[in-house]
Amino acid sequence: MDGLNPETVRQIRELGGEELLGQLFGAFLKHGPARLQALRESLAGKDARGAEHWLHSLRSSAAVLGANALSELAAELEALAREDRLEDLGRRMGDLEGRLQKVLADLEKALADR
């Protein structure tokens, strides 16, 4: 699970047990891809504020799960959106999609291994 910080996962498990872990992981599995799609739509519409919103949402939820690399990349891209640098942001979407897919795979594996 190199997409997730094991210490954060341990802390979530300690705080709320397997139930909380399942709820958080399940919510991210459901909403993460939807946030990415909304971000793509914002980019297609040249909506920098919308892109910033969706990146902020993705950044925050990834941080809660300990998906640090994804959260950090989303923060970098959020700054690009804030500066209205949508072309630069668009060139880095492949990186974001790859990191998100890794986190989603790690979450699915973690849920299956419970």
What do you see in this structure?
There is one protein chain. The chain has 114 residues and is mainly α. The protein contains 5 helices and no strands. Helix 1 runs antiparallel to helix 2, helix 1 (6-44) crosses helix 5 and helix 3 (68-82) runs antiparallel to helix 5.
Class based on secondary structure composition and strand pairing: mainly alpha
Strand tally is 0
Compute the number of structural domains. 1
Q: What is the element string, with H for helices and E for strands?
A: HHHHH
Strand fraction equals under 5%
The CATH level-2 architecture is identified as Up-down Bundle
- The CATH topology corresponds to Four Helix Bundle (Hemerythrin (Met), subunit A)
Please describe the biggest sheet, giving its number of strands, its sense, and whether it closes into a barrel. none
Helix content: over 70%
Give the mean pLDDT: 95
CATH superfamily: HPT domain
**What is the molecular shape?**
elongated
Rg, rounded, reads: 14 Å
Low-confidence blocks of residues: none
At the first level of CATH, what is the class? Mainly Alpha
Ends apart, CA distance between termini: 14 Å
List the total number of helices. Answer: 5
